[in-house]
Design goal:
The protein contains 16 helices and 24 strands. The protein is an alpha/beta fold. The strands form five sheets. The protein has a six-stranded mixed β-sheet, covered by helices on one side. It has a six-stranded mixed β-sheet with strand order 7-8-9-10-11-12.
Length: 466
Amino acid sequence: MTIEQIYTGCLAQGAYYIQSGNEAVIIDPLREIQPYLNKATRNNATIKYIFETHFHADFVSGHIDLAKHTGAPIVYGPNANPAFECIVANDGQIFEVGNIKIKVLHTPGHTMESTCYLLFDENNQEYALFSGDTLFIGDVGRPDLAQKSDLTMNDLAGFLYDSLRNKIMPLPNHVIVYPAHGAGSACGKNMSKETFDSLGHQKEVNYALQDISKEQFIKEVTHGLLPPPFYFPKNVMLNKMGYEAVETVISRGLTALSAEAFEAAANETGALILDTRKAQEFKDSFIPNAINIGIQGDFAPWVGTLITNIQQPILLVTEVGREEEVITRLSRVGYDQVIGYLDGGMDTWLKAQKETDSIESITAEEFKARLLNDTVIRDVRKPNEYQSEHVIGAENVPLAELSEQMQAFSKTQTNYIHCAGGYRSMIACSILKSRGFDNIVDIQGGFGAIAQTDIPKSAFVCPSTL
């Protein structure tokens, strides 16, 4: 028996390849399916089933394309009602794969179709639990994503409480928990950096598995949830209703454009220009109105949070050679309308002597030298980061809320903008620049660099205690 966790850091997502004998299954596959096909071929295996733990919100799964290429049926748990052919399994149903068995454990709560898969090894012993978004390492799935008019967040949290206690906690302590996500995913709020653990250890350390009442659990699991990224409902619908083949998406996006053709395409289509270079490369010279979201950060989640139209035509400026990687990572979150890229990258634009723009970016020491009592400082970190410690006088405008809080930025004074390390602040600066703000300055290295100076700082004090 082979179990391989295929972890994708950008999405903090774990897919699984499991093989016994010459039969294999895939659990929660990513959209680009070729690696799974290659793995099965190398191992002389046939993919027998494609298991989905639920309709994912944070990425577009590869289940449909994988089924088309292999003929393997897609398996969901009870309550699933997709627009394509699949097996909607019964609670407790057993699937045989080589010399092992996989048992369906219906665990509603994160969503109503959420299901875990319990693997029995060759000795018919409970060995591993593929827990999807029901149980994470250090956390559980958020219960607010599948709310409906007749089903509240508290209702879902109550179902989750029952699922954990009736289906998961009675399992032996030695069972290995393999979740669908780790730290950084927006599907939970406080996941551990570890990507698997024993169930016994989770019973000891995971707050959601402690001896608490259902009321306490509901209060705890619903407290402090940040709004989900905009693209989550769109991804659920793609996973439920179907989508364009990823090969088609990549082929369309890999249209190389000269500077003239790129400029014409932008003017004719109204496409968003997405520049995925590093922040400190972008700042010096970029195409006017381009948005910078660096490929080397939390790229896909920030695209999904900030680009609210998932059907928006997109033109790419990338590091040379990374065009297909960018298109692939966009497709993982359903942004399929890339219509081309600037062939040769930004050098092509500069050689054609096209118009460029820039953003001033200064060091923390330079920022210190410019500080006055009325300096406009905007901290685009998350509220909990800001509350932990911040520059005195800085106002918190979380990047995820930037469009709704444009009024927080001065139109007359210089806006000094920082995040934790410089990635998010350049995203914010590029968006502001595209909205007509020319009086913006990025602080290189963010609060990490500011913390090394003697610029006055403070922790947040709740107003109720003043």
